[in-house]
Write a structure and sequence with these properties.
CATH topology of the largest domain: Nucleotidyltransferase, domain 5
Helix content: 40-55%
Mean pLDDT: 87
Order of helices and strands: HHHHHHEEEHEHHEHH
Number of helices: 11
CATH architecture of the largest domain: 2-Layer Sandwich
Largest sheet: 5 strands, mixed
Number of domains: 3
Structural class: alpha/beta
Distance between the termini: 34 Å
């Protein structure tokens, strides 16, 4: 169903493009002439809210109305979600849907479907994402999430990251947040290194290695990495490692 406002715009467009009268355009588009000529007498109380909402949409084109609503609330707008949904539809905003893929359970007992997180600090997952700076040099990003809360705990950005540096990042998180019961990952060389295995055993953390070639078994980590790339990495060209660290940390805190 098209709103009266949209029909009013369609009638105006038909008049300009086809050079027909208002009466003719209204008849063809089934718009009452009284509605076409109506103009609101009170000021638009949503004007500032809509302006800010559109600014956020331009800055976060992959965000839906719920996340835009959360950002507006954080910015001090006292507005409920239904009102944002109404304005979202009025402005014709939408996020293109991604095609859902069929879920596979996989053969490994360490996958996220067979071994689910049941509470905070039960299962964490970590993985690597690659990018580059404007000069073509490689960036390596280590992402770590709590699967139960879906919270991104850390994103380490460096030119390269060894197993020893992975241990240092984990050691800091364990001291600040407490150690998880399990840590899920793929079979990358940094994760299966003997130093990592020994240190996790000493820390009382059980490693969960997914089956080779089965990224869907680490679905929460892959989902975050996909969103991270879509919302930030594919839209930003970093001039330096330092800039990448700052921008990525800002994204993590907002996420």
């Amino acid at each position: 169903m098209v709103s009266p406002t949209r029909r009013r715009e369609a009638v105006d467009g038909a008049q300009r493009t086809l050079e027909v009268s208002e009466r003719r355009a209204c008849k063809v588009l089934r718009q009452p002439r009284g509605t076409q000529r109506y103009r609101a007498r009170r000021p638009d109380r949503d004007r500032l809210l809509v302006q800010r909402m559109l600014q956020l949409v331009r800055g976060h084109p992959r965000y839906g109305y719920r996340r835009i609503w959360a950002l507006l609330r954080s910015a001090g707008f006292r507005v409920n979600r239904k009102r944002i949904w109404r304005l979202w539809r009025r402005e014709g905003l939408k996020v293109p849907r991604k095609q859902r893929k069929k879920r596979r359970l996989g053969s490994s007992a360490n996958g996220c479907v067979r071994r689910r997180a049941e509470h905070i600090n039960h299962v964490w997952c970590y993985d690597f994402v690659s990018d580059q700076t404007a000069d073509g040099r490689t960036l390596k990003l280590l992402t770590i999430e709590d699967e139960f809360t879906r919270q991104c705990l850390a994103i380490e950005v460096e030119r390269s990251i060894t197993s020893k540096e992975v241990i240092e990042v984990l050691r800091y998180l364990f001291e600040v947040r407490g150690a998880p019961a399990f840590l899920r990952s793929d079979n990358g060389p940094e994760f299966i290194a003997q130093a990592i295995r020994d240190w996790l055993t000493e820390s009382g953390v059980g490693p969960l290695y997914i089956a080779p070639g089965a990224p869907w078994e680490n679905a929460y980590g892959e989902s975050f990495n996909s969103r991270f790339r879509d919302e930030l990495l594919d839209r930003e060209l970093f001039s330096s490692l330092r800039e990448a660290k700052v921008v990525v940390e800002d994204y993590r805190l907002e996420y």
